[in-house]
């Protein structure tokens, strides 16, 4: 609550600042006649002095947010600065809003002595110009570091998060790079013959993608903005049945991560907070909760390491694992330790109710290296591919802070102990965190990060195919859109089709969001992106597969980015996406929620075929009452209300399939058969059996999410008593081991799902 928040910040102000500053490396110029000039980013305008200015907020005539100190006047006693010695910052935060810290000219993990009006260290005009609080001569310190992969981190920053700052400029006259960094802030080097590519990106990394050679490119064969931009928003027809939202309960803890368990309940997982709705027996607040959709009640669960912005997956034995996280906040809760390398296990069962309410288990197994914002994907052999992450929460434009590697956990959730460099992550720094990963039907991985995609073979540790870049803005953190592996079936040989929607231009509350979507068949003979668009730009939008084969997209913002206080213009409307229709006519609009779901929101399918929507905690510590006109924004606060979105197929109370009986709940992905008997609605014309995996949901990612239409025989049109024979997919590339849900649908209307184990 607000009172406890002020106390916590007074105790340790620096450690609750929860945004990682990520600095552009070039002042954006809009005069193409100047040597080395670059184009403005989307949403920026060209000023008379030939500089690019951020667009004004939709809700404000001002171009920039209010001074940071105004926020801290609300949070802390005015005497706090007198109580904290003026020392050098270790994480790039500075000024009165960070305990009076100064910028260290010799810092290795940030550059510059200027403390900006927003309380971050840098050496550009944004930091050293108007509003600069200290060190305004702009002396730069530290070095860019080696882009070679190191998993030894500088000191962690507590709960500071990745935030991309503003640009600086300098002529590219420093010679060829020796480490893959380039441009302003990195000795003004050029890329030359660097293996990743000749273009120096806006953020100071060498590469050959549109993110390197397009808008913001500092040197090399810069191409500038695309000749044919991604499509703008397209009107979509209203769905004949829009569905509807209902508020049904409260989550107990902020819902940063979520998953549907085999007992039919939902687990919410959060970071360390100075307030939640639930307390544990030891008197500390709970940061995880088990929510029962039948009663709409939540109970607190205990964990032992900070799970802030973790990744996760189901193990083959059905346990849910949370991987990585962030540093401890012992001044808030001394019982929770460092989560950067943590592996947390949770066990639930469809048949053993004694496990309900059991706490997380943390026996001490560790990842091979620190990972904050990591993605996890279960492989066909039951191992877990874990990729990316920040080593310490510090500036991602400094390679020494980043972990562009992957590691493998075995089927029991134990790390191999080795972190292996992954080139697509290295190349796309600082947009390398929380990549989209999907397992393909040949056992390889589709990996998407920034604007780039590839097919990667894990066993051989090699890129099989470099796919075309996706048009439009950045698509992954901190401008994440959403990505969905569309339903698989034997009708096209189980060929995968992937859609990526939304995104944004840069990390700031002024950033425009991208309405465009790209659809690709990555294993086709000539894979290309087919472009379409949503009715509006959306960041932090997430797609969830529905049992009828459609996708529902919810949550997000129309302006801004991921990070605390960095988004506005909430997008409240559900969008229904029908992959069976031609590209360009797949969207229709559904019902509107009344609740803003911004940063740290989740959505997932329940056993009854409805969509649970929860979360939104776009503030550093819980705030329950809006405080407008603050920096960072507190217009949108901690949201505990849980909604149920009833999709179109359940509107008007249609008759569902009932009395569903499976001949076995232990299934094998080897082409074997099992029987499904049920009572179908009268007059039915089509019934189907769906194999569904919801995965691990966080930050608009649905890790491991997939759905398969199983082949069936024995259907009798119109009969109410049905007994089908369903055939499992032929291999584990299609259905990796773990818990799944079987849904039976008739006319697209699902019956209640049942958990099964696939081995």
TrEMBL record:
GO molecular function (one): chitin binding
UniProt superkingdom: Eukaryota
Annotated S-S bridges: 114-128, 132-136, 199-213
Domain Chitin-binding type-1: 91-138, 179-224
Transmembrane segments: none
InterPro entries reported in the protein's UniProt record: Chitin-bd_1 (IPR001002), Endochitinase-like_sf (IPR036861), Gal_Oxase/kelch_b-propeller (IPR011043), Gal_Oxidase_central_sf (IPR037293), Glyoxal_oxidase_N (IPR009880), GO-like_E_set (IPR015202), Ig-like_fold (IPR013783), Ig_E-set (IPR014756)
Protein keywords: Chitin-binding, Disulfide bond, Signal
Disulfide bond recorded as keyword: yes
UniProt protein name: Chitin-binding type-1 domain-containing protein
């Amino acid at each position: 609550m607000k009172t406890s928040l002020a106390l916590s910040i007074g105790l340790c102000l620096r450690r609750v600042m929860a945004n990682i500053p990520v600095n552009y490396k070039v002042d954006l110029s809009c005069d193409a006649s100047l040597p080395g000039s670059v184009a403005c980013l989307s949403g920026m305008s060209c000023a008379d002095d030939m500089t690019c200015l951020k667009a004004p907020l939709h809700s404000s005539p001002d171009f920039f947010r209010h001074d940071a100190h105004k926020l801290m006047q609300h949070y802390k006693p005015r005497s706090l600065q007198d109580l904290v010695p003026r020392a050098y910052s270790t994480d790039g935060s500075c000024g009165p809003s960070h305990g009076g810290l100064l910028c260290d000219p010799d810092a290795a993990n940030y550059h510059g002595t200027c403390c900006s009006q927003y309380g971050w260290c840098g050496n550009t005009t944004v930091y050293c110009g108007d509003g600069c609080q200290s060190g305004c001569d702009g002396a730069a310190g530290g070095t860019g570091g080696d882009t070679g992969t190191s998993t030894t981190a500088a000191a962690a920053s507590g709960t500071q998060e990745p935030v991309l700052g503003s640009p600086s400029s300098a002529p590219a006259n420093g010679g060829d790079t020796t480490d893959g960094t380039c441009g302003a802030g990195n000795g003004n080097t050029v890329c030359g013959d660097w293996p990743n590519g000749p273009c120096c990106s806006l953020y100071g990394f060498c590469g050959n993608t549109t993110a390197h050679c397009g808008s913001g490119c500092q040197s090399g064969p810069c191409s500038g903005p695309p000749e044919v931009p991604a499509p703008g928003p397209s009107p979509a027809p209203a769905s004949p049945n829009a569905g509807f939202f209902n508020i049904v309960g409260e989550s107990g803890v902020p819902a940063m991560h979520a998953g549907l368990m085999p007992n039919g309940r939902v687990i919410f997982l959060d970071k360390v907070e100075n307030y939640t709705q639930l307390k544990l027996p030891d008197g500390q607040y709970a940061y995880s909760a088990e929510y029962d959709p039948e009663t709409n009640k939540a109970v607190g669960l205990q964990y032992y390491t900070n799970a802030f912005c973790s990744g996760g997956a189901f193990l083959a034995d059905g346990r849910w694992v949370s991987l990585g996280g962030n540093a401890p906040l012992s001044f808030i809760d001394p019982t929770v330790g460092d989560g950067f390398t943590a592996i947390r296990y949770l066990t639930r069962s469809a048949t053993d109710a004694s496990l309900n309410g059991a706490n997380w288990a943390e026996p001490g197994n560790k990842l091979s290296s620190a990972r904050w914002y990591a993605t996890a994907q279960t492989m066909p052999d039951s191992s877990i591919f874990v990729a990316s992450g920040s080593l310490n929460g510090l500036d991602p434009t400094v390679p020494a802070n980043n972990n562009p590697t992957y590691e493998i956990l075995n089927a029991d959730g134990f790390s191999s102990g080795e972190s292996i460099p992954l080139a697509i992550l290295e190349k796309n720094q600082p947009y390398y965190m929380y990549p989209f990963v999907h397992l393909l039907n040949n056992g390889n991985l589709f990996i998407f990060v920034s604007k780039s995609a590839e097919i990667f073979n894990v066993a051989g540790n090699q890129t099989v195919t470099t796919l075309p870049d996706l048009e439009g803005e950045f698509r992954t953190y901190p401008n994440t859109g959403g990505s969905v592996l569309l339903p698989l079936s034997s009708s096209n040989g189980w060929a995968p089709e992937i859609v990526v929607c939304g995104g944004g231009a840069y990390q700031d509350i002024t950033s425009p969001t991208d309405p465009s979507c790209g659809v690709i068949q990555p294993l086709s003979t000539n894979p290309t992106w087919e472009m379409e668009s949503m009715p509006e730009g959306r960041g932090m939008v997430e797609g969830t597969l529905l049992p009828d084969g459609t996708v529902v997209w919810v949550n997000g913002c129309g302006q801004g980015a991921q990070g605390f206080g960095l988004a506005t213009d909430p997008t409240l409307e559900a969008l229904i996406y029908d992959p069976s229709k031609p590209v360009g006519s797949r969207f229709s609009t559904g019902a509107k929620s009344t609740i803003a779901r911004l940063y740290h929101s989740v959505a997932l399918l329940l056993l009854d075929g409805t969509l649970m929507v929860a979360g939104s905690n776009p503030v550093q510590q819980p705030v329950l009452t809006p405080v407008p006109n603050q920096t960072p924004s507190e217009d949108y606060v901690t949201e505990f209300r849980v909604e149920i979105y009833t999709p179109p197929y359940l509107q008007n109370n249609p008759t569902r399939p009932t009395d569903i009986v499976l001949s076995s709940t232990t299934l094998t992905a080897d082409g074997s058969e099992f029987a499904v008997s049920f009572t179908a609605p009268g007059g039915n014309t089509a019934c189907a059996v769906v194999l569904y995996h919801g995965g691990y949901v966080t930050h608009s990612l649905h890790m491991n999410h997939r759905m398969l239409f199983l082949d069936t025989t024995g259907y009798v049109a119109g009969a109410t008593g049905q007994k089908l024979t369903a055939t499992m997919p032929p291999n584990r590339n299609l259905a990796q081991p773990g818990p799944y849900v079987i849904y039976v649908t008739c006319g697209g209307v699902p019956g209640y799902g049942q958990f099964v184990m696939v081995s």
